[in-house]
Amino acid sequence: MTESAAKVGFISLGCPKALVDSERILTRLRQDGYTIVNTYTDADVVVVNTCGFIDSAKAESLETIGEALAENGRVIVTGCLGVQAEEIRSRYPQILTVTGPQQYAEVVDAVHQHLPPIKNHDPFVDLVPPQGIKLTPAHYSYLKISEGCNHHCSFCIIPSMRGRLVSRSIDDVMGEAEGLVQAGVKELLVIAQDTSAYGSDIRYQTGFWQGRPVKADLLGLCTALASLGVWVRLHYVYPYPHVDKIIPLMAEGKLLPYLDAPFQHGSPRVLKQMRRPAAAEDTLARIAAWRAICPELTIRSTFIVGFPGETEADFDTLLGFLQVAQLDRVGCFQYSPVAGAAANDLPGTVPAEIKEQRWHRFMQIQAGISAAKLQHKVGRTLPVIIDKVNGTEYIGRSHADAPEIDGLVYLKSRRVLQPGGIVNVKISRAGDYDLWGKTVR
Ligand code: SF4
Fold first, then answer.
1. Which residue of 5, 225, 389, 440 is surrounded by the most CB atoms within 10 Å?
2. Which atom belonging to ligand 1 lies closest to the Cα atom of 150?
3. Which residue owns the Cα nearest ligand 1 atom 1?
């Protein structure tokens, strides 16, 4: 790279799906000879990849755009909030370009237009790693298997921002996964808006990977990923009957025994109002069946309290659901309207103080469940992947912990460990969310 390289500052906001979009844009920019810099003052232009999922995320995105304009002045906006281009432009008319989510070519074109790439860029010298630019640590990576969503959850505007479901072909997904593993990735985090819907839009079309046919459905994908010999963790899975088929792979140790399944509520009436996928399924029976096959299964979920029309009886049903489901990791949000969502027209707004009370009652019950589940791990030996090294102290994660959202394992070891290493750790103590222990052979 020459001294005069064109320099781009990049800010990535939002969820892991947006992070993967950022990785793709950054990879293209690096391939085109741009240098990515970390400060506003070093950048010739700043790209802000926004999130617009809920109002607080939208506010953060707008604030970040304002900051980038104040600090640098030359700003290109992309991502989910980009679908509300008029609103962004009316607030910040000096923005150079606004593009929407997944518009990789458009945002790269916008950078080219406002900051032409250097002329003497040599793609053979300015090598970009074959797996592309990654914003995660080298030992784990998100693997996005589809874009968009075919559901119509009444509180969500993602389908209007990211469009209908578009699954990647199985050979494309597996080619990327294989490349990541060859580059040293030890844990693949499978993501989509609805991972369990993978392939339904492409009629589960069989593709070829390593010379053999692989069906583009959840089971085909999971079976192929399991053969790569790394940790494979599934996010955003709904409790459809066909998900039952992948649980044996978890019981056999081929996939991590972990499901991130956003249930959102336990009352069938509220779930119907939410228009949730798989709302008609008997989720508690399904969870029991999964655990019968794979007792080690960790289930993470998220819930919304105070959805319009939620009665005290609905909320009691939700608490009863929690008691029976005994979920390992749970996030809970108080309902807040999102501009453009269908739920805004529903009657029965729950007053703020009731939402707050329900949230506390929910969290109190779940905290007890989660803490008791962690206590059961004391004395056990668990495989742990190392994330961080602080001298002779290490921070890692067990099978039950996804990066960023779940707990951590703090450990000591006489051996020198590296990030991405997987060791056995005897657990000596458990807190509300995290574990402590030391390595054993
Ligand atoms: S499944 Fe529902 S909440 Fe998830 S992206 Fe689709 S519409 Fe939104």
1. 225
2. 6
3. 151
